[in-house]
Amino acid sequence: MPSLNRPALTDTDPADRGTVGERAPVPPEEELLDRLRAGDAAAFAAVVDAWSPVMLSVARRYVHDRHAAEDVVQEAWLGVISGIGRFEGRSSVRSWAFSIVINRAKSRFARDTRLVSSPELTGSPTSGPTVDPARFRGPDDAYPGHWTSTGAPRPWDQPENGLLNREVRERLERALAELPERQRLVVQLRDVQGMSAEETCAALHLSAGNQRVLLHRGRAALRAALEDYYDR
To answer: Highest taxon of the source (predicted)?
Structure first.
């Protein structure tokens, strides 16, 4: 396989990417795999541009230091380069690349801190209720299991402020950072990176059932954070 340069996480020479400000689109999966195996630098640059920002964010969830996270992503891209010839295509290239990032980040975290992950960090996907049971009608009610008059979720649409204003975004980011590790990663891959359920399962080595539960719990926690914000 032809040698490819070590990838950079910042913009490189625009002449290698086309017009300034433009990014080459990531090729379709089968074409991408063929081109990467052939050592196509343009295809490699396209995926580095498209995937590195979220890879960096995922890595920072483990190492909590930008420079260390940048090293993790650089090492992961080198792993992609060295391993693409052996990649069997059992998952998408994207989920495979993200699994490399996660594995490198875990190794870096273990090496730097020499700490063993606690149950609180990994989080069991089945521990505790997703929503406070008091928000639902009891078994003696005419409509058991339905929302109570005060327990129903409030609508997020608030035209006077806008859902995506700076304060709400900051609140969501804080809430995301507070999620247990696996919930946070599933939400980030599904809702930030736009990965499919299958890709996310492959990247995080999760069963389909666990992925669904973790995603549901993570989204529920974020929604609760917004409800608290609007209830102030």
So the answer is: Bacteria
Which has the closest alpha carbon to 178: 126, 123, 124?
123
Kind and range of the H or E run holding 105: helix 93-113
CA–CA dist 210, 202 (Å, integer): 12
Per-residue pLDDT at 145: 61
Give the residues across from 136 on adjacent strands: 147
Burial of 139 (0-12, 13-18, 19+ CB in 10 A): exposed
Distance CA 125, CA 220 (A): 13
Q: Report d(CA 130, CA 132) in Å as an integer.
A: 7
- Determine the Cα–Cα distance for residues 98 and 195; give it in Å rounded to an integer: 11
The CATH code that applies to domain 14-113 is 1.10.1740.10
Contact 33/93 with Cβ under 8 angstroms?
Answer: yes
pTM of model > 0.70: no
Question: Could you tell me the fold of the domain covering 120-231?
Answer: Arc Repressor Mutant, subunit A (1.10.10)
- Rounded Cα–Cα distance for residues 90 and 224 (Å): 37
Beta bridge partners of 65: none
What would the pLDDT profile of 95-132 be if each residue is shown by its tens digit?
899 999 999 998 888 887 664 444 444 455 555 555 56
> What digits encode the pLDDT tens for the residues 14-48?
334 444 345 678 888 889 999 999 999 999 999 99
